[in-house]
Amino acid sequence: MFQITGILREVTPVISGTSIHGEWQKCDAIVETQEGEYIVTYAFSVFNKDITIPVGSTVVVDFYVKSKNYNGKW
Prior knowledge:
Helix content: under 10%
Strand content: over 45%
């Protein structure tokens, strides 16, 4: 597991769809963090959860890195 602490800069509008497993919703959260002298920006896709944290808030994000290939798309 990885963890970053940063500022929530943006939450994109929710998009939704239907898969073989049922309906889903997704939005992206953009978080900036200071790493040494550089600002690093991370984008996280958040599925089936509402983000109610105000933009500009300090957040701690725990995440796993995982990728799947489906029909040539990652």
